[in-house]
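Re: folding output
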Amino acid sequence: MTTPTQPTDPADMIHDEHDIKPSGLLRFITAGSVDDGKSTLIGRLLYDTGNVAADQLASIEATSQKRGLAEIDWSLLTDGLMAEREQGITIDVAYRYFSTAKRKFIIGDAPGHEQYTRNMVTAASSADLAILLVDARKGVITQTRRHAYLAHLLGISELVLAVNKMDLVDWQASVYQAIVDEFNGFISQLGRHHVQAFPLSALTGANLASRATDISWYDGPSLLEHLEYIPARRDTDLAPVRLPVQRVVRVMLGNAASGANDEEFRGYQGTLASGHLHLGDEVAVLPSGQQARVTGISIGERALQQANEDQAIVVALDRDIDVSRGDMLVAPAQPAQVVRTLTADICWLSEQPMQARGKYLIKHTTRTVNALFDELLYRVDVNTLAQQAAPETAAMNDILRVRLKLQQPLLIDAYTDNRTTGSFIVIDPVTLNTVAAGVIVE
């Protein structure tokens, strides 16, 4: 019998000085088909790491007993919506926060049903890592491939293949290895990804928070050990300054040293999408290209010397120039692209098919513009990865590469360079429903 592929032990993983170090916070998602055990895995992980309160534990124990279950239903810790509990499935993204002695985590439990692919896209858009669960009895199925492709599309290069319910196949090494080989064969076609595979049982906790010692053919780390070690891929911190302007306000700006409110300024409010912004920095305002110097940065009444990625701030400039909602403050030497056409990969999320050459709204950062699907270049078959050229329309969950014409300019980066300025949503102008999510190729 072939020895199953072993995940690398964290103690043996050596990285060079150029590797990104763990940030202290890891954002990850769990995804898979219905009943693969995503919510159970999260619930058990929370319990095994001491992140479940006594009253919560008592509640889910009581509910499990009422349902006639011999074991605690750990999925109840995440399936909080009444509709979910009635159906026994996850239909929304459940976010949970927990920590160990080594780092903090944010988990997104993405739905398994195909019609809730849009929720998986939402959860994956900010994740550093994706855990793809596979039922050992079923193996790799279409939803596994779909979620793996979406993770690839959304720039998640760190993948965990969690082969769950191994206890239901008597922990057969041959079953585990066949699933790992099939998945690796699929993901290798998408380019460079780092995949770690784990045999486990979310229900019993085997190989989840602690190493499984009773599996003769497995001597690798537990899933939690891997999560505690793996670096968070948050590269926007090193990217150029991008501050989409949400609104223009009049603010009292205090002195950074004394904190005193001493002068009123016209300020530009927004969340810093990437980079670091300092007092005295030169910035350019797009799309006009006018330049000015930063004379004030504040959060509420608190003045700052420096703003970092993800902070919601108000910025004052040394010149009174024309800036409005939807404009963007950028590093002059590294500006965003100002475009009226763009090529993007989209996932169609609506039950209503795309209207060929129909007019839609594109919401990108704080700017919303009218747009036309000028050309549908190809549709991706998630099972074979074949490109079906020139489709006439898009149905729910289709993944396509498209070319868009914009009535007004957008201020963009490629998604591979910046997740925030490289992504957008598509809105139906009549219903105002979100019908697609996209990532910018160029």
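--- second protein (sequence, then structure) ---
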Amino acid sequence: MKMKRNRTRTGCEGFTLIEVLAALAIASVIIMASTALVHNVALFFDRGTRSVTEAERLMLAVERLAGDFSSARFVSRRTEQGTAATAFAGEPSGIVFVSAGRAASGSLDDDLISLAVEQDGEVSRLLRRRATWPGPRARFEDVTPKDPVVLIEGKLDISFVFGRFAPDGALAWSASWAGERALPGYVRLNLRDRTTGANLLGEADFVIRANAPAACGQADPVVACLSIATSTQGNVPDPKGPVR
């Protein structure tokens, strides 16, 4: 009788080794699945946050560019050959032009704005720099813009093109703008993702409103303003044409 009671008591105590191993295996699977789930949630959350941040930064860059181009001034400058030309020079990789000063910048003097596309390995950056414009006797080469600000950054193809309206009302685009007597009517920013090939901005056209010197708005405008206005009529869109 004693032998039977001992056997019964021993069979009811603790877990077997197989049960312990099975419990550990199940716990390991649960821990691994939970870890993977948390990692995926954190990864997608980080991607979503980064996408929102990049979109907001791109919108701010577009607003900054729109403000600069809308305040472009119709002023003259000296070229390297000593001739006079409009203070606006552009190419696919950058633009230099004169913009009206802003009270927010602490000065009401005209600004020289430089927009340059710079490469750093696979990363492209659109940098904005500024300096005080000395006046029509100055050359672009004599002024050094400072205070660089990165407007756009990433694995992107960034370039500019320049548009004007021809006398027949057609909008023509060119890859450069140099030595012209007038400002372009539009500046388009091309922004393409190198990985996907997607055009991130579509047709992002910035309007340049100035088509004559500020002196033409005075009470007794000089006769030269009439010739300038005539030479820049190609920049004025046909009222029946498309509105941008």
